[in-house]
Amino acid sequence: MLANLSDVLIPAMRGKYCVGHFNVINLEMARGVISAAEEAGAPVVLGIEESQLEICPLDEFAAFVVPMARKASVPVVVHFDRGQTFVRCIDALKQGFTSVNFDCSRDILEVNKARVAEMSRTAHAFGATVEAELGVTPEAKELEFADAAGLSLTDPEQVAEYVQSTDVDALAISVGTAHGEYLKTPEIDYDRIRKISETARIPLVLHGGSGLSDSMVREAVGSGISKIDIFTDVNIACCQGAIQACNDGIHLVTEMIPYEVHAVHAVVSEKIRLFLMKD
Length: 279
Description:
The protein is an alpha/beta fold. It is built from eleven helices and nine strands.
């Protein structure tokens, strides 16, 4: 069933568990994610980044993901991730997306707030939700030099006023993780998550969830994270499925596709179990 972020994250925040957000760029990935969510009886977020639209155009993504979300037996949020432009975010809403992440984190604070507030007004008119970003979550290659690059962790003192002035539904925070494949183990500031959680009063989001250990995920969720974003792990799994098919002598795409779906299903199933804090 089609849902928005508030539908799935408010219960997660109250129940102290986490909803998985998995970016996908083709039908095989989407099938693997939804089948894993249905098997677990868990809500899920399916997304695509603005930077990935060269691989899978927005209208094509919406054409296969929105109907899949509608007929799923669990709540599925269709989310436009890391949107950089207002126009693209609005286009996503018009295409049937139920949520947008408008990333203004590298703007100065007052510009960030003004742009996100406008997005919230517009998206809410569509019945959709908005995820904003306060503090900059770097790319993995930037992580080691984050301070030198002027990238900032989320300031807990800014959170309450930011949430109130922007009317956002979820907040992605920068606490030590990074986008992409880690070059070294990240150092997550769990105390910062807890401080932010005390004042935010809306669900908190952790970007850069791929590659985190189980213990890191559990502590992040226990500290107040309600949504964790994953792409690299799913991307690698799909590729490994194709490699396994080739190793098994498969030379037809029609026979390779089930390998890819199964590989994505397997990794997403494990993530969902972890996010739900199940042993």
